[in-house]
Amino acid sequence: MTYGHQLTFGVLLDPDAARPGDGVLLDPDAARAGDSVERARLAEELGYDVVAIAEDPDGLDAWTLLSWVAARTGRVQLAAHTSVPPRDPAMLARSAAALDLLSAGRVDLTLTTGERAEAKGEAEAIEIIRGVLDADDPRPLTYRGEHYRIPRMQRGPLPAHRIPIQISGYAHSLLQIAGRTADGWVAELAVLGPDGVAAANKVIDEAARAAGRDPAEIRRTLIIDPGVSTDDLLPLIVEEGAGTLLVRSTDPTVLRRFVKDAIPALREAVGKTAGTVPGRSAAVRAKRRAGIDYDRVPASLAETAVEPGDVEYARVRNTYLRGGAPGLVLRPRTTAEVVDALGFVRAHPGVPFGLRSAGHGISGRSTNDGGIVVSVAALNGIEVLDEAKRLVRIGPGARWGDVAAALAPYGWALSSGDYGGVGVGGLATAGGVGWLAREHGLTIDHLRAVEMVLADGTVVRASADEHADLFWAVRGAGANFGVVTSFDFEVDEVGDVGFAQFVVGAEDPAALLVAWGQAIEAAPRDVSGQLILGPRRPGQPSFAQVMAVVDADQPDTIIDRLQPLAAVGPLYDQNVVLLPYAGIMANAAEGYHRAQGDPVARSGLIEHLTPEFAAAAARMLASGAVHWFQIRTVGGAVSDVPADATAYAHRSANFSVVAMGSDPRRVDAVWRDLYGYFDGMYLSFETDRSPDRLTDAFPPATLARLRELKRRYDPHHLLRDNFTIDPRGGQR
Amino acid sequence: MTDYGHDLQFGAFITPTAQPAHQAVELAVVADRAGLDLATFQDHPYQPRFHDTWTLLSYAAARTERIHLSGNVLNLPLRPPAPLARSLASLDVLSGGRVELGIGAGGFWDPIVAMGGRRLSPGESVAALEEGIEVIRQVWAVDRPGPVQVRGEYYQVVGAKRGPAPAHDINIWVGAYKPRMLALVGRAADGVLPSLGYLPGGAEDLAGINRHIDEAAGAAGRDPRAVRRLLNIGGRFAPTGRAFLDGPAEQWAEDLAGLALEYGVSAFILAADDAPTIERFAAEVAPATRQLVAEERTY
């Protein structure tokens, strides 16, 4: 029988075998060190899957050597054959996580017992290692075992992949551990013989079943001497289920011969019985959510899909602003895979569905509880299509900081929000209010064509000439109509820009707002920016943060433009720098999203910051219900585009206003007083999902047209995560 | 004026952040290419935001060519000395003699204990470090007869095989501030490695540090020049001078030359997590400081 594992081959760089008989040895350690590294590189070059390094009491430290080898190889799996003790399980886990991150997920651990025959603490060590690596669990790790005690340590870091932990040995106690909890079992063929392997497998399988596990969860690895014939190896694979063979040799000739003769013959002989991707363990499957047909995930997506029990889950469950617990995250890498993903979503009509580019969305949830998330993060290409026309093609999963960095060498920029961590897909289907908005318009105003997958799986190209109706809709309400898989933009020539950050006194926030609004409206279009206010804190001075970008590279011009902005209130601090646009966008936090909770954001678009509006805003700030109040500049080139040219229709506004809080009732109670001053809103900054908000986001004519298009392109209402337009809804 | 006459070294003190995974390695590569002498990483094994420092050092050593690497400083309470000695020797062999041992007695006991380590009083931790250094030196001393024999209060390593032999004499630099630890440095270490930011009296405290070390060295029959004085520093480059190590590179050089000539500091390790700062430290500050000190020393 086999256990269904993909057959892999490795090299065990065994210190005993490494004791070279050839060559002149001046410094045995140094020679052997170089030898091991060279053999590891050779093994990778020859196509071996695994390089295993065993502890050598007389030689180099195995972990140090493995770390070195990791840095000098790029593909091969790195197997540490090591013992606890002397290694401490918690420290070993930290080390394994580090090397796994550095080597992009190539580490696996095999616990050996050295001279000791019986198990002693290995089961506890496995629990501790797994506990440390489970960084998704926010609780500290506490462990009270017979061999180890950990009072209360922080878990993590999260490794790059699920690090397999295998057990090596022959004693019943070790086989039991292998069956009960380990991811694999490693044994030497020469010690056990084929009959011994069969007997050990039986013990492991029984222990696995007794623990409620499928014996196939445990990969069987045999260490073989190079002399063993293919005929002897074949039954070990097809009958005893060996999934990995580790050749114990450091002789290049032997390593080459095994690759040339044995591996192809073995692969061919077992081709029909082995070679599938191993399924998820019972422990992982136990965390699956109801209503999702996990076994029907399309083959093209299975390898990259993430479900709650996976290590990768911690990296994909939350977004920048929200905690989430989706039941499945599909991560297509191509348009065809997006088609497959939407097919899977269509087969789950009652299950929540979120679409994510980089997970920065406020209106678009892009995570959920128990539903499906399709993340297009892997569709992150940035490609110049036509240098003369400044035409670039960008994938929805790219982040704007990366886009800015990629365009900078050409002297180009695409105004696109103010934070480098925002993804292209969400912003470029909604609007895009950026640092150059007044001069160069919205991000969508630079869009020339998209490729998108519609709800029914059709792939279309939309532009002014093809599917012009969709092209209109995708610029402002794109999330309702499909998954854009690439955007063609015409970008601008932008040199260095002036970037100013002022701290101004806000004792009288209403006066400040009016003064700032007037200064902005009076400024030439090469000035865009924003103003941020927090709640008033009793007894403390009040400040506002004023930021501005001046698209000019002459310091005199920049200073000239900034003077009126610096004069809107008492200036407490200032910082003005001349830098490339990409330098402003290089502000994204690193690492995966760890947000918790659910924010409340309200958006409004407004033409002028009148004294009446400013007074209402000041009252709102004084209430304490809002902890973040931000006004961005639009107008200018944004207003040059006719209101009916795109689904983003509120073109007359000069300002985009956002308030954020945490309690929707408290926020709405104070937001109500501002609401009357607005002429619509920018949907990207709004969290309210009530259908009324649709009429704020889209004027009647726009909404009517969108609803008609929604009926045509998404009649079954598949796309409903971000300002959804119900195709069955009435004409508002 | 105290000057022990050491050649000047310049290094980077790089945060071993686990995210992005390669940031620390890439900065070590930058430091290597820029011509710095040392790339160092702090070691807080209880802090999961950081890479395991030993794994990072090993990986970074394999990605660099010339620069020496060290923990700054390795945490002895969570890194038992015999395996640590073997790891150091192994990396020294692999890297062609580019590893040094910055080590500390442990300072943050709560998280050390929370991870399963043993809480020691300040005095105990000094004694433990002295034993640890003894174990490490015995493991490295492959030419001495018999196995490792340390029957200490904190570490008992009896009968362990010596080796592997390091490729060069690995320096042992101790993070030390207080008299007992400084006395240990004077007796048994190759260098002292404090952080300027932790000196309550600023650079002037270095005089007291030197005095304790020199007295202990003398009492142990060692030449004070056997102990290198290293220093972790922080600063920022600015167009005009505002304060100590806050100004243009030329001012930095004068500030550092002052420390070298006044207090005998001969290794400056700059806390920096960005490539331009590391490159500027190497290209502008290091040569100018060396020149100033050389000019002064010729008088």
Descriptors for this entry?
heterodimer, A: 732 residues, Vanillyl-alcohol Oxidase, Chain A, domain 3, 8-stranded parallel beta barrel, B: alpha/beta, two-stranded antiparallel ribbon
Topology:
The complex is a heterodimer of chains A (about 725) and B (about 300).
Chain A: E1 8-13, H1 15-18, H2 28-46, E2 50-54, H3 62-72, E3 77-83, H4 89-102, E4 107-112, H5 122-133, E5 141-144, E6 149-153, E7 165-168, H6 172-180, E8 184-188, H7 189-210, E9 219-224, H8 230-238, E10 242-248, H9 252-270, H10 282-285, H11 299-302, H12 313-316, E11 328-330, H13 335-346, E12 353-356, E13 372-375, E14 382-386, E15 391-394, H14 400-407, E16 412-413, H15 424-427, H16 437-440, E17 447-453, E18 459-463, H17 468-477, E19 483-490, E20 492-493, E21 496-505, H18 509-522, E22 527-533, E23 543-550, H19 555-566, E24 571-580, H20 581-585, E25 600-606, H21 611-623, E26 628-633, H22 637-640, E27 655-661, H23 664-675, H24 692-697, H25 700-713
Parallel strand pairs in A: 1-2, 1-10, 2-3, 3-4, 4-7, 7-8, 8-9, 9-10, 11-13, 12-13
Antiparallel strand pairs in A: 5-6, 14-15, 15-19, 16-20, 17-18, 17-19, 21-23, 21-24, 22-23, 22-26, 25-27, 26-27
Chain B: E1 9-14, H1 23-34, E2 38-41, H2 53-63, E3 68-71, E4 74-75, H3 81-94, E5 99-104, H4 109-114, H5 122-140, E6 148-151, E7 156-160, E8 172-174, H6 179-188, E9 191-192, H7 205-219, E10 228-233, E11 236-237, E12 246-247, H8 249-263, E13 265-271, H9 275-297
Parallel strand pairs in B: 1-2, 1-13, 2-3, 3-5, 4-5, 5-8, 8-9, 9-10, 10-13, 11-12
Antiparallel strand pairs in B: 6-7
Helix pairs in contact in B: 1-2, 1-9, 3-5, 5-6, 6-7, 8-9
